[in-house]
Amino acid sequence: MTDSPRRARIFGPGLLIAAAFIGPGTVTAASQAGASFGYALIWAVLFSVLATIVLQEMAARLGIVTGIGLGEALRFRFRGPKMRWLIAAAVIIAIGFGNAAYQTGNLTGAAVGLATLVGGSVSLWSLTIGVVAFALLYGGGYRVLEKVLIGLVLLMSSVFVAAAILSRPEPLGLLKGALVPTLPADSLTTVLALFGTTIVPYNLFLHASSVREHWGRDVPRDQALRGARIDTLCAVSIGGLITAAIITTAAAAFAGQTGTIDAATMARQLEPALGGPGAKILFALGLTSAGLSSAITAPLAAAYAISGVLKIKPDLKSFRFRAIWITVLVVGTLVAAFLGKSPTQTIMVAQVANGLLLPAIAIFLLLVVNQKKLMGPHVNGRISNALGIAVVSIVSLLGAWKLVSPWLPTPPPQPTATQQAPESEQ
């Protein structure tokens, strides 16, 4: 008996996760990492990719085994009315409002890329991209969205890796940066930013729900679980490759420069730095793709998360489900188009909410996938639990740091000599 076309498809939901976390926030954080510290922080990308794979595999397994999303699982796990309302409030505030803030950065980042490519107003492009995202979410259906996002991820991979190759990186410097963890002076903030833009709590909700749409109940469970693991490993690794490529490009183009190197600056200055207009065009195209892919996935993830904890059917055609993602999309679009907020400012606001919610969601996920009544023989094993506890511990420290960092005294400026250039320039 041959598999149906639906059974034959393996890749899909994992690339949605890559499309979600490779947005303007990642582009900005990676650009700053490469510009300020050369190749030295590529190890942070490698760690964040491994941590993301651990958590996303658990989320995908939950969705396949139980047929419910993470929001529904949290509601079933905590049955007391007070706890349910507390969880619902936390998810709505942190993911709903947080994703609206991210949406502003997503749309503005994509608009900056388009303005660099063809000119025009960033505000007008923000509105245009918001309308495009609305049309895709409202009328496309899951299969169409999946194909669009897979295409955008593949486009991002191509353009950012091409830009990195044009930068002529130093292989030994790349290898050292990936395998030897170091913390150059003043690099902790950048390391945490790289963690925070890759290990994203709303992706756990998105993944648990999207695997149900992709494989469905007609696919044998063992086959779906195997496919989900391969999909997650490959897709998140592609996302990490994109981030590392951006760091590599920025390291070659801006090594030793002080101040903030945001995505817009990268797009404008790559042409003289790398010796031709092609690099600038590639980077702007990648930035546009990153912003558009995240502009689609952020409202969708918020809708899956909030509908799950509020007992709303997670159906793309449902009025109440649509009302959630429309609210997130409209708020983000209006702020991006009319209030003139920069991607860096809005993304930093969202990262605070992200950092606060991530440890709690990761702990909840770990508890749920250890519940034998819910997961049956597919509960976490010892290795999965050890890896999960390690990741939860680290992201908890990340969340605590984001909570207290605004109250810490600002260190005095450091001399430029403390910044690390690529190996080839030392």
- Overall structural domain count: 1
Structural class determined from secondary elements: mainly alpha
Query: From N to C, what is the helix and strand string?
Result: HHHHHHHHHHHHHHHHHH
**Architecture in CATH?**
Up-down Bundle
CATH superfamily (homologous) name:
Amino acid/polyamine transporter I
CATH class: Mainly Alpha
CATH topology: Amino acid/polyamine transporter I
List the helices and strands and how they pair.
Blueprint: H1 5-8, H2 13-21, H3 24-37, H4 42-66, H5 70-77, H6 81-118, H7 122-139, H8 141-166, H9 171-179, H10 188-198, H11 201-215, H12 221-254, H13 263-274, H14 277-309, H15 319-339, H16 343-368, H17 372-375, H18 382-404
Helix pairs in contact: 2-8, 2-11, 2-12, 2-14, 3-10, 3-12, 4-9, 4-10, 4-11, 4-12, 4-16, 5-14, 6-7, 6-13, 6-14, 6-15, 6-16, 7-8, 7-14, 7-15, 8-12, 8-14, 11-14, 12-13, 13-14, 14-15, 16-18
Describe the structure.
This protein has 426 residues and is mostly helical. The chain has one domain: Amino acid/polyamine transporter I (Up-down Bundle), CATH 1.20.1740. Helix content is 77%, strand content 0%. The chain is built from 18 helices and no strands. Helix 3 crosses helix 12, helix 5 runs parallel beside helix 14 and helix 14 packs across helix 15. The longest helix has 38 residues. 54% of the residues are buried. The N terminus and C terminus are likely disordered.
